[in-house]
Batch of 2 targets.
Target 1
Amino acid sequence: MKKNVLIAGVGGQGGLSLSRIIAVAAVRSGYRARTGETLGMAQRGGSVFSYVRFGEDVMGPLIEEGGADVLLGLEPLEAARAYKYVSEKTLAVIDPTPRPTIFNISGKEEYPNVEELLDIIKKRVKELYTVKARDIAKELGSARSANLVLLARYLRIEQVLSSNVVKEAIFEVLGEKKGELASRIFEEALKRFS
Amino acid sequence: MQTVGKKLALMGNEAIAYGALEAGTSVVTGYPGTPSSEVLETIFYLIKRYNVKIPYAEWSINERVAFEVGLGAALAGARSLVTMKAPGANVASDPMFSAAYCGTNAGLLVLVADDPGPHTTQTEQDSRWYGDLMKLPVIEPSSPQEAHDFTIRGMELSEEIGLPIILRTTTRVNHAVGDVEVGEFKTMEYEFSFKYEPSRFVRAFMPWNRGRHKWVLEKLSEVEDKAKDLNQWIGTGEKGVITAGAAYNYVMEVIKERGVEDEYSVLKLGLIHPPPRNLLKEFLSSVKEVTVVEEIDPYLEEKVKFLAHEWRLNVEVRGKQEGILREVGELDPGSVKRALFEREAIEVEEISLPRRPPPMCPGCPHIGSFYSILRGIRKAGYKKDQIPIFGDIGCYALSLNPPFEAIWTEHSMGASISMAAGIKAAGFDIPSIAVIGDSTFFHAGIPGLIDAVNKGLDILVFILDNGTVAMTGHQSTPAYEISESGRRLKPISIEELVKAVGVDHVAVVDPYDLKSCTEKVAEFLKLKGVKVIIAKRECAILQSRRGIEKVYRVIPEKCTNCLVCTKLLGCPALLPVDGKITIIEEECIGCSLCAQVCPYNAIVEVRKK
């Protein structure tokens, strides 16, 4: 077994924590794991790709072009930006809720058409699922857990990590306090997608 | 400790911190810089979590000071670790050169984190060359586990050889999370070992310097033998690959994936400098051809070609100089695959998508500062493009993006002040502005300011004082009262420091008060002499972590959709939806800037319960 997961999102959406949670869960499940990330520039609000690779034998943190088994997109423009990494073997789960860029906010550019963005991925992958992860997470208690709602959606399609191990990993990465709410949202989301 | 022998999912930098504590490191210091900062942060975390007793774990004012503190501590007998990003090594380089001549008593490891890509660094510097220049050994891990192991081994090796060692890493090791087996933390007992020995420590007498130069060359000749365990030779095939660091992983993965392990011999170097000559000779003699796969410069490639020539070996050596791997940007499995099996770079189809550079955070005090600087320039009777704004390293470099497009330069730590002074030195009678953050000012801005005052180069220095090293994750500055490790600090006041230097006009302003901030900029631009404006307001992220008391809301009936607020401020909490402005409540920190610029008083304060 080997899974190459690419998480695409905007800095601050929880992509990095999600990659860490998956890595911790994978190591706790006895796999080898590697993560890496590609940041736009500073910390918040820029494009961020996070890579997680886990399985019996993984070494480097990067995924090669066309090499993603899974694309978790926290935002449609950022998911579209991952087009080089997906292929006909890829399973994509994307939140279609747009986050405007600084050019949109300052009135210099219009945000692209969301359907067109999703199409970039759709025509390249095996299957594309959209899920309003942010809205669901907000409804369940915190928009910050949109990342875990996406993960829950994916794990309902491919049960590659057990939900208990993921919950342990959530606590390890986020700490007791934040982990409490986040793991509950994860659990609720799993139920919702069953 | 409860983690002994356990496999943890650790980031390379976290693994280095675990390794340092397992090696009994007693002094840890450095200056924050991506991708190196998490080493000290993890040390602070581990100190608290496991109640580890360590004499000194603190951030330094800059990398040079950090290295000198580490050197002094290591000469006194304490194992020391100093951390920095690649440009930090340039700052620390002066004392590092001399350190090769005096050597060390206890282990002294200098982490230098390079950033192929680059992802978060001004240059794609390959710090391996420092090994040759400084005459210091360089070792390089390829994974988080090796980052851990090489930290321990490097500390021992430094002590065995008597030289500081550079632990060179790249982003794909520092920031990669992997499974790492950790051991037990160790506290080292040590005695005061610094002795009066002027020929070793005083660089003022030239014959001693020649003697020490000879000494360090002899020391370097011992390294290969002592560091044998750092290198790995895999396979017996006729096709050779020489590699190091993160690139090693890509090499092994693509060879395995293709199922051609039998055809290849891979030499992975953990010891980078001095090059392990005996091992290389044996390897080069055993293969017919060699591809050198490494990040950034063709560093090993040049050495290997040189050695092959020196030994008159009939082996073909290929790498970046033949164009089969790129020198610009980082490597990945795809590029290594092409280099090994197809030997030509393929251009992948490009789709053009809108860029998403990071904006300033909602409520960032720098938004107020840049609004005021640009307004102040106009108020003083100038056009925006008439007055150069010299930027510096920190979050405020984001002012390069809309709506401000403010800074003309972002060069190197502290350069804003001295480059701004350079305009005046060249004799131009136009105002010259430097913008610099508080930590960057402490790090390297002070000498430039002293020189400007001393030489009468009348610049305006705008210090963006958000009270922290924000961009790298909110590390302490010399203005803190308590450090991350719990040490009571004597806070240094920027205002008093600036006044003591003799700056002609000093003002402290609140960047959340746009009117007075703008007026002060306009006023100071017209004055002769060196002027300093300190814009003081805590980083927005720290404010929001402490809790927000009020937010702002748009009254839809009053909002005329003029978009003045978004176009002037670019605050990410202001969201234009179908031409109408809304404020994302969970993002707003209540800075009031949008309410101040709204021409229709359509934005109002709402107290949070």
Target 2
Amino acid sequence: MDLLKIGTRSFESRLIIGTGKYGSFEETGHAIQESGAEIVTVAIRRTNLGQNSSEANLLDFIDLDHTTLLPNTAGCYTSDEAIRTLRLARELLDGHDLVKLEVLGDPQTLFPNVSETLVAAEQLVKDGFQVMVYTSDDPIVAKQLEDLGCVAIMPLASLIGSGMGILNPWNLSIIIENLKVPVIVDAGVGTASDAVIAMELGCDAVLMNTAIAAAQDPIMMARAMKNAVQAGRDAFRAGRMPKNLYHASPSSPTAGMMPPSSKK
Amino acid sequence: MIAAHINGTIRQVETGTTIFNLVKDLDIAHKKIALEINGEIIPHSQFESRILQDGDQIEIVTAVGGG
């Protein structure tokens, strides 16, 4: 069985999806099902009080017996905010310790602030969290985060929500080669082929939100991503043929050809 | 009465109100929430014993959709 092992947990699916930007909670739940994802991210925000207090909650639409929630720190710009958010998340989810750390550095690009991320990661690991961490595709930072004890390193492929795909496969390859913990592309996947490329590079999983939620048909795209991640993983494990830059190689036998026609 | 800041809004609550009373009054007792007072997380096990003080900054959060 080709399991994805993150910290103390194991998963069959290598697709992790976010739960933001969907048209409705029903659609979110349906997309999760169709994607086969076993891990879904959630954000932590103030509870609605007053007139909306009886409205439905996202968690009512997720099969919590078969899904691992991954609370994130989206929107946090300092290590203190991120740590505070995840401590609240742990209380909210009854001691749940698997979390996604992201500390942003700039509202325009949503690039991570890696120095704040390193500070937060160190503290959260000390606090007993299993930290999956969003970061840039800098191989040195990725290694530092692994050395701090993070259980998965999640470099961006391109900007969050941009759908620009895998912009620097070389950096991702260096990170994959250097790290022992799972490397998960987080952010930038736009369509199925991007997910395939990430997995063919040797990524252990792919995390995406907008690529599914902002598709014309999110449910169908959820299925496409499930298949893409599986296809990319299989291709990676199967080991692709070598590339021959200047030499074609016929697929059909060269022997047994008829002689050239003698007809004038 | 005392004044407490709850998720950024000032509310008047009866002196002696516990967190348990507060979340019931706010109609969110049935919801999955986490709560902090003045930056300190209050475990659910302390909801019945913890009494609100004048000027308390209370944050109540839940899980929402996000990536």
